[in-house]
Amino acid sequence: xxxxxxxxxxxxxxxxxxxxxxxxxxxxxxxxxxxxxxxxxxxxxxxxxxxxxxxxxxxxxxxxxxxxxxxxxxxxxxxxxxxxxxxxxxxxxxxxxxxxxxxxxxxxxxxxxxxxxxxxxxxxxxxxxxxxxxxxxxxxxxxxxxxxxxxxxxxxxxxxxxxxxxxxxxxxxxxxxxxxxxxxxxxxxxxxxxxxxxxxxxxxxxxxxxxxxxxxxxxxxxxxxxxxxxxxxxxxxxxxxxxxxxxxxxxxxxxxxxxxxxxxxxxxxxxxxxxxxxxxxxxxxxxxxxxxxxxxxxxxxxxxxxxxxxxxxxxxx
Length: 317
What we know:
Blueprint: E1 2-5, E2 11-14, H1 19-47, H2 53-78, H3 84-89, E3 91-95, H4 103-119, H5 123-131, H6 138-143, E4 145-149, H7 181-192, H8 199-217, H9 227-247
Antiparallel strand pairs: 1-2, 3-4
Helix pairs in contact: 1-2, 2-4, 7-8, 7-9, 8-9
């Protein structure tokens, strides 16, 4: 991958074309150009047989320059860097900043290409492409261009690894409403690039992101769960809730999904931290045996269940 920085300071990751693919594209372009040159030359010889030798020589030179030099320049300019050979090989010529080339870029490439490709049979171009870190020949260096691949094989760059099966439904009761979108985006980008990071760097990033998510949810990260697995499980839980909300299956009020959605036997992570759980009631021996002043004993069950204060504790499934 080659990193190109655009004029807006945006980094583009493009796959630079290497010598085999570039040589095949140049070979196809040369075959087409030579075929056209031979056809035009035969037509000129037949039509200008009555001219003298000097005129025929001048026409031959002009045909060579127009067909073998001007033709590729015109094709690259009009096609924005895609000649017939490059289109067949899935290549394109772009500027150093990733933008489309113009006439001046094609002109410099074509003029230097006459020396390093036609006159030296491609030896200079091959050596320069092998020496360059991005596979550029002399024409690309002087013109400020780069040949990149357009047809890149599909990869798992956007794949988010799923959490371990034993974490399914573990965070079904977690409050994710306070986590901002930019933090979710950072978690998603980290998970998609998890296989490309150094193990130490990836672990440090996972710990930092997990701490940020835990600070927003109000529940600490369990010690027995690795930070990458915690992030994957929390992100999957958010995706499940969004899918339910989009299909109309979300519970009223946008709260946590019902307990029936949690697989049996899987512990549910508590919503509130341990500090928010109220202390246990006093032992029965310490309570007064007589009724209170109101004439009704406490805990008699006459008070409606809906009017009782919530404890903020979610029992296990």
